[in-house]
Amino acid sequence: MEYKIIGSTMPLIQITLNRGEVIKCQAGAMKWMDDTVDMDTNMDGGLGGFIKRKVMGESGFINFFKATKDGDRIAFGHTFPGNIIAIDVSKRSIICQKRTFLCSTVGVELNIVFQKRLGTGFFGGEGFVMQELKGTGIAFVEIDGESIEIDLERGQTIKVDTGSVAMFESTVDMNIEMVKGMKNVLFGGEGLFLTKLKGPGKVWIQTMPIQSMAGELFPYLPISTR
């Protein structure tokens, strides 16, 4: 399998497969493919897999695409302005925000992860439910806006605007912290809480979370006078 990421603000991932190789994706992610690629849609894991994906905000079904000859091509597109990143989950499992998974090789497992801390689930900006990517192979994920990678040493901590955490290695600990100082809370523009990430491990920060963009656009939406 070979791949290349094409485009900038609305990229797609184009994958070239050898005969017999299979790639899987969430329903609706495929943009185009060669006529010789076979498609099969199923629940991948049965009813349990279907329910897990629905809880994660994904479609309950997974599409599988199989190359019938060497050089078969298929492309998957981003659903929001941002980046597509390739992650080798054979090296480490990755915890992601919901709806991050785009497509992967068949050895990648998509699991559900619940926040262990009540406060983090309520105020961390990522919600109680997150995705875990593990297994073997390559996963392609969607990042809102630009992506910034930060490697944290053991015990090193950073504070991040809630909602801006795209994903992190499973060795990273995530918690929340209340912004200190009433003046900072009222006039700082960062809200009441910040997300704390403690190493060791790698963290991916996104610069334009979809919920932030929605908030910026809301004042400009037409309002019905009825």
UniProtKB/TrEMBL annotation:
Which PANTHER family does the entry link to?
A: ALTERED INHERITANCE OF MITOCHONDRIA PROTEIN 24, MITOCHONDRIAL, TRYPTOPHAN RNA-BINDING ATTENUATOR PROTEIN-LIKE PROTEIN
| Organism in which the protein naturally occurs | Serpentinicella alkaliphila
Give the taxonomic lineage as stored in the record. Bacteria, Bacillati, Bacillota, Clostridia, Peptostreptococcales
Protein name, entry field:
Uncharacterized protein (TIGR00266 family)
Q: What superkingdom heads the lineage? A: Bacteria
SUPFAM superfamilies per UniProt = TRAP-like
